[in-house]
């Protein structure tokens, strides 16, 4: 494995998640009991960048399994317009590595003022965010030094998954979470999905997924931009056919994120349509018989290591993408 900080941090994720599962079992059980006894009317996800993308994974998980509507907060509603929403009987889940971003803190204050029960998924449990919320689910990722988030994103997904498993009382998923560190270790040891030659000459690309595949496609597109400087946009494979598909006439590079779940048949059909229109497709998937709700984590585990290697091959420092810093202060 490379000696970059990004590679080391991404490679540590299986151990991080094994520890997190053990440490967070009781808080997830307690919150799961609470939400079954008093089901929330909805869930608002608060986060920016990578944390926002983790919220998309939560949307699919909670809406499919708990039948509760989930929406992403629009940060400007609080930060620019200073509006307080009526969130009585809502849960607000804020995801933050640092727990320090001023706009996130302000949004949590307004969510709480609006009546929401606020939960923080946070890596720094001594951060200002912790003092604002009703419950904390620690990410237990340890210090993350590389600017491009890896282990904090993966630990956010696993924390969301554990919370859901106890809320839903999904024994199959609880059992699958016990095997997740091993599944991710297998992904670390797997052959690369994305290599420098597959992205040779690529300045623009599209990342397609469906459902949980789309959730991680958002994060894949972000990493292509911030680590490699490639302009990448994520789409649901269904949404891509409603207009943007015209882009493939110019042999556009398309990254296909495929999850072996209920979405596979329709997604694969839509990707085949894109191929027939002339796209050059790179497959980003790991053939797996594992529980469909945790496959996304294994794919991201492998992808983070791959993109770090592509960056090295291109002569780019993956630890310090130009123009970025670890804590972004926005309003």
UniProtKB/TrEMBL annotation:
Where the record annotates domain SIS, the positions are: 31-183, 195-321
Supply the alphabetized keyword list.
Answer: Repeat
UniProt cross-references to Pfam families, sorted A to Z? SIS
InterPro entries, alphabetically? Answer: GlmS/AgaS_SIS, GlmS/FrlB_SIS, SIS_dom, SIS_dom_sf
Alphabetically, which GO biological process terms does the record hold? carbohydrate derivative metabolic process
- List the CDD domains hit by this protein, alphabetically: SIS_GlmS_GlmD_1, SIS_GlmS_GlmD_2
Can you provide one Gene Ontology molecular function annotated for this UniProt record? carbohydrate derivative binding
Q: Which PROSITE patterns match?
A: SIS
Query: What name has this protein been given in UniProt?
Result: SIS domain-containing protein
């Amino acid at each position: 494995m490379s000696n970059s900080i990004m590679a080391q941090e991404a490679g540590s994720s299986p151990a991080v998640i094994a520890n997190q599962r053990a440490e967070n079992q009781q808080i997830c059980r307690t919150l799961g009991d609470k939400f079954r006894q008093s089901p929330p009317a909805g869930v608002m996800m608060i986060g920016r960048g990578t944390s926002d993308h983790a919220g998309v994974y939560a949307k699919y998980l909670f809406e499919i399994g708990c039948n509760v509507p989930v929406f992403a907060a629009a940060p400007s509603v609080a930060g620019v317009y200073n509006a307080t929403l009526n969130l009585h009987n809502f849960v607000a889940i804020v995801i933050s590595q640092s727990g320090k971003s001023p706009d996130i803190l302000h949004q949590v204050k307004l969510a709480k003022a609006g009546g929401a029960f606020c939960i923080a998924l946070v890596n720094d449990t001594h951060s200002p965010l912790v003092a604002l919320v009703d419950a904390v689910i620690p990410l237990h990722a340890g210090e993350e030094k590389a600017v491009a988030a890896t282990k904090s994103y993966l630990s956010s997904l696993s924390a969301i998954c554990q919370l859901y498993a106890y809320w839903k009382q999904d024994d199959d998923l609880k059992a699958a979470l016990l095997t997740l560190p091993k599944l991710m270790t297998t992904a670390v040891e797997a052959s690369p999905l994305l290599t420098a030659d597959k992205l040779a000459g690529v300045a623009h690309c599209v990342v397609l997924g469906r459902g949980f595949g789309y959730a991680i496609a958002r994060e894949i597109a972000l990493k292509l931009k911030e680590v490699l400087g490639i302009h990448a946009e994520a789409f649901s494979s269904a949404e891509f056919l409603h207009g943007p598909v015209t882009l493939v006439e110019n042999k556009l590079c398309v990254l296909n994120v495929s999850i072996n779940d209920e979405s596979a048949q329709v997604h694969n059909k839509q990707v085949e349509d894109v191929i027939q229109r002339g796209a050059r497709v790179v497959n980003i998937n790991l053939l797996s018989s594992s529980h469909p709700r945790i496959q996304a984590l294994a794919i991201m585990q492998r992808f983070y290591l791959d993109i770090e290697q592509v960056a090295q091959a291109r002569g780019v420092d993956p630890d310090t993408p130009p123009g970025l810093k670890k804590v972004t202060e926005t309003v």
